[in-house]
Every structure is written in structure tokens, then in C-alpha cells.
Amino acid sequence: MTQEIFTTDERNALKASVAELHKQLGTDYRETDERRLRELWGCALNGGKVMRDVFGLHPLLTDLKTAVILVTEIGVSRVAVLGLLLTRLSAAGVVTLEDVAAEFGDEVAGIVRGLTRINELYEKNPIVESENFRQLLLSLASDMRVILIVIASRVCVMRVINVADNMEARRKTSTEAAYLYAPLAHKLGLYKLKSELEDLSLKYLEHDAYYHIKEKLNATKRSRDAYIERFIGPIDEHLRAAGLKFHMKGRTKSIHSIWQKMKKQHCEFEGVYDLFAIRIILDSPLEREKQDCWQVFSIITDMYQPNPKRMRDWLSIPKSNGYESLHITVLGPEGKWVEVQIRTERMDEVAERGLAAHWRYKGVKGGEAAVESWLESIRGALEAGDDFQLMDQFKMDLYDDEVFVFTPRGDLFKLPQGATVLDFAYAIHTKIGNKCTGGRIGGRMVTLRHVLQSGDQVEIMTHTNQTPKQDWLAVAKTGRARSKIRQALKEAAAKQAAFAKEQLERKARNRKIELEEATLMHTMTRLGYRVVTEFYKALADGELDINDVLTAYVGQQRHERGELNSQTVSADSFTVPTNSSVAAGKADVLVIDKNMRGIEYQLARCCQPVYGDEVFGFLTSGGGIKIHRINCPNAPTLRERYGYRIIDARWEGKGNSQYGITLRIVGHDDLGIVNNVTSIISKDEKILLRSISIDSHDGLFSGTLTIMLDDTARLKALVQKLENVKGVKTVSRL
User: Do 154 and 257 reside in the same domain of the chain?
Assistant: First the structure.
């Protein structure tokens, strides 16, 4: 049976993975565990209860390879490995959660439960989107080991999907790896896996950029290695003379990191000066770690001129995820800036393997509590707030650098870069945040909007009459503060609505009017309110007069009883007017997500999609949907930063709508060429020329044409005609 299920290569990979697990886990991986797992997987395989995934990968092989990543590159224990290997079996009905708890323990069952939730989400949809993001967070926040497993699983899949035929599934998997799982790895200190996820995502999503940088790195490797040798030679001599035990290595920046610098600095590969860093790793006992690191710092800065603006001290105050290191940038030979990272063997293992490695060391103040606090903030944020704002703050919390701020008593708080006095107030306590009016830093009064700097000692000022305001959401940067503000605003709105409702009911009783829920809802709609809370808020704020509402209610009630003439407009016929950009696309059926029709949308101005283009939907912060072309210039940024807001969209059906697009045309400035171009457009009654702008210089002309047409087929035909005009060199769509 095994012969039919696995290929020869897969059987060899299975054996190698099992052997590696034995080697890494040792006696922790019990014989009884393996024997029982073999029995259960045998039942699943022989019964055909587990199937290959969308990439053609077998789940057993994927899980075993993921387990190897967990033990070798993260350093997790038996419990997480068993939880991973039992999850598929539980989903296939081979074993129940109760059986898992009885045979392997409650911890293993808890991990199976968390992973099962995540797998169920992916069965519904191959990429995490808005509707199941909250469920994903619930699963992740339940047990940190669940996060480690899903990161390892995504690394495993990303390593092998280069040969997959399903390009769309590969694109979606890569996009999610970049916007969700790489930041998660970063947050947990798994920098090696984070870089690998980012590089592989870039490889699959932006193939040309990836291989361009890779080829450049290969071409410059020899000269780079030679420079590193010249740089570290004198350092090696001085450190040995000081009696230090150490080893050094050069580390080239990841391809993704280089690509980000190229985009940020708007430069070519040659313009990125800090392509590599030197890492000095000391063999020091725990009690001498900081002393030895600072000694190395002193030796290097005596030899090479440091750049004080680029110094990072994570020795004195480690990052929340446990990362400790001392980073300095110095001016090396030939006037080149070189980053030097100074750390010990223990610190290096934590940097490579994250928190799982950090917790193994006794007597070290770790990041476990900080990350658990972060998970707790996720749990709190889930209780309140808009799903999409929740996703935004979650993503922001993952990647932001930290600032270190002190209370007047000297208590230390770590906050993301850009955090304000208001964030600090909520970090101390929710009640303090809700009453915050500002702060005092160094004897100087500052507003609650003031952005904090590392080292600030902040005294929070409060007032009993202060309450959270709507604009505070724009001031707060941390997920905790934003969720607490939204929660307070919701509670205040609920109280306000309850008071307004009570007033309305009291006035109705005074006028001998009996309020019926259905009629009142129709009255709200007729008055232009589709959300009950907005209706009562308008009453509370005085935007609506209660007497006017009751008059409208009586009119609606009489209409429903047939007491008014036929000219009275029913609330059922009330429609909210749509704006022109939405209406323009309505004649053509655009199907959003799976099979949702009739959803309001706007066509993005940045790429001007036309019927027939491959498109996707993007859910804006305001809740609307904008339709972009797949090759929109903004698409890579949207997918990287807001992948969870991307939704599928496709054209279905055809109407009489016309779409505005802009063409760029370049050619030789021959006599009459503009007339030739415009005459081609005017001859086609289905195409309307809206505007034309032409500039000529040194015998060449370039310009833009804004036209209205109905689909990509007509656009393609027009472009071909324009390209055939004598003198025209290129015609491209903007």
C-alpha cells in the first residue's frame, strides 16, 4: 500500500525526517509515541482518509518535514510535535480529541484543537481574509506553540511549491507568507525563518526582481568576501590580543531586505551600500556577557569611526521577543560603512531560533512575559472593535520597532515606534487611558498626541471629567489603546442610544402612540438611517427632532394601514442614491468574492480597470470596495501590506457601460501625426475621446489620450491600430 501512496523520493524523505526527529528529540520522543502514531497513520493511509493538498504534497510528508523544522530550527519539544502529527488524524476521524487527551495529555489535545480551527479556516478559503481573520487570531492566541507550528508549516510549504503547477494557489500562499507569517516570525524572534519566508515570497511574487538581485549578489561575491577579510583581519588580531574567545562571520543581507532598500531609496542594486554585516560571536559565561560585548565595542570603535546615529543597544534593554545584541555601524577601509553585530553564543542562538531557545536558559530575564502580554492584547482586542481595524493594528504590532519609556517611579514600558502619550497611558491602565488629558516629560507639559522617544520619563495627567473621543483612534498607535478606546466609545454610544430610545418611547406614550418595531424600522429607513445605533445617535445629538420622528412614524403607520392615497411613497421603495463611479460599473455584472452580486464598488483610478481585465477587490478602511487590475502598479504594495483585505472579483455578463482609461503614446513628431491618431479614434463610434495632451521635443512627441470604451477587446484593437500609424513608436496603457 505504501508503494502506491508515496513515490521513491517521498519514501526516502519520510525515512530521513523520522531519523532526524529521533536524533533531535532523543529520549523525549518515546517509543510508545512513535508506535501509536504509526498505527494511527497506517489506518488513515490504508483507508484513504488523507488526501494530497492543492500543490500535490502529501500531508504526512509535509507534517514530518514541518516537525523537523520545529525541532531543528525553532527548538520546540515533544508536545508540539505530537500535536502537529495528530491534527490530520483528528480531522480525518481516525482519533478524537478525547482520545488524544487520554493517550497523550491535555497539552497535546489543546494544540490539536488550535491547529484544527486553523485548518478548517483554510479548507473554506485557501488564504486568510476578512471573514475568518478573527477566528485565526483566536486560534493563535490560545497557545504560543500553535503560532510556532503554523510558521514552520508555512516555511515547509514555501520551500517546495516552486515546482507546483497551481500558479494562483502559489501566489496566494506566497502573499500570505509575506504579510502575515513573516511578521509573526519576526515578532517571535525567528529572524532566520522570517528572512526565508520573505525571500521565497519575493521569488514567487516578483520573479524578475528576485533573480536580478541574486545574480548581482553572485557576481559581486568574490569582491565582497575579499573586503570582509580585509575588514575583519585587524579586528581579529586586536580581539585575540585582549584574550577574548570568539568567532566571526560575514552575513549578506537577505534578497528581500535589499529589494526593500532599493525601493525605499529609489536606487539600483549598486546604490545599496550596506549589503552585508559582520557578526562577532563571543564564547562568554553568562555573568560576563555584557562586559565582554562592551569590551569588543570599545576595541572596534577605537579602530574604526562609528556612526552614532546607527547604534542599537539591545544589551541593556532586550527586545520583547528576547533578542539581545549590540549593533554599530563603522567606517571601514575604502570609506565603506559596515554594520557590526556583537553578541554571545547564547544570544546568537536566541536570534536564530527565537523564544523557544531563549526559555531554555536559566537566570535570564526573557521575553516570554512580553510576548504573552502581546497575545493577551490580541485576546482583548478580539472582544471589541471593527474586524478590519483589528487586522490593521495586528499587522502594525507585529513589525514595529520599540521605544523604551519610564514612569516617574522608574517602571519600564516597551511601546512600538511612534507611540504617543495616550498609548503610554493605556499601557499603564485602561482607567488612566480613559481619563488622560496629557503628560509631563522633563518638567514640560505635552499633549496626549505627543510622540514618545526612548528614554522619556512620562507622568500622565488625568481629569475626572475626561472621556475617550472618536479622534483618539487617530492618535493611538498600539492595538491595546485602540481596542480600549473603541470599547469605551461603544459603551458610551450604547448608553446614549438607550437614553434616546427611552426619550422617544416616553414622548410616544405622551402622544398616545403605540410604537411597533417593524413600523419604526421602516420609518428609520425612510428618514435615511439603515443602522439603528446611528438613528438613536442622531436623536441623542439633536440632529433629529423626536416630534418629527413621531410624525413620520404616524404617517408610515397610516400608509401601512392603507389610510393614505396611492401617491404616498412606501418606505420599501426608498433607495439610497449611488454615486456615479459605482453606477457606471453596475450594468456589467461584477462578481465579488465567491458568488456575491449587487455589491457596491468603485473602479480604482490608479489603474482604471475595464470590462475584461483580470481584477481583484480591495476593501478600503471606510468599508467600501475598490476594483483594481491584477497588474495595477499599486497591487504589490496592497498585497504585501494589506493582503487580508484582498478579495476575489471577476466580470460576468456584459452591459452598455463605458470605462475611462488613459493611453500613453510616444513617436516621431511627423507632420499630421496627431490628426492621424485622433482620426482613428473618431472613426470608431464605440470609442469616445475625452482629452488629449501632446508635448514635442527634439523631433519626438509624447502624450496621453483619455478615452471611453466598453471592454478590453476594443482596447486591444485600438492599440494595434495606433501602433500601425507611421511614426508611432509605442502605445501603452497607464
Answer: no
